[in-house]
Design goal:
Oligomer: single chain
CATH topology: Rossmann fold
Strand order of the largest sheet: 3-2-1-4-5
Order of helices and strands: EHEHEHEHE
Distance between the termini: 32 Å
Largest sheet: 5 strands, parallel
Number of strands: 5
Structural class: alpha/beta
CATH architecture: 3-Layer(aba) Sandwich
Amino acid sequence: MYSRILLPTDGSELSHACVEAGLEFAQQLKAEVVAVFVGGNYQYPVYVDILPPNGPTEEEYKIAMQTLADSYLRPVREAAAAAGLTYQEVIQFNDSTAKEIVHTAQEYGCDLIFMGSHGRSGLGQFLLGSVTTKVLSLCQIPVLVHRIKHH
């Protein structure tokens, strides 16, 4: 059925719950897993001639984002290992999270994207999150949208 599943995460509780469900799904299918975190691009200050004294440099920003991404991906990595799944992880930088998720799925040969209905930016009960909606509109492969039940 599906042999390589992309699991996007933004580090939110909802995203983590969705990733756990995605790992269970992958285990049932004996599929490989590719986890991805997409961070925004470094934003240069408007006054490019001088960097503000308290702002991070591009290098500092990338290091901070890599550390943050690792903290979000570590539990996914550990759970995938515990489940005996073949696992890869990817950290990408792009201001269009949805486009980067779709691009990563294509680049890594994924045949399914398993993602939450909402992540860090949206908790509405009736509408899909903006990133999920954009992925659905851009993607040529199946997208399984997992909705977390609220108790």
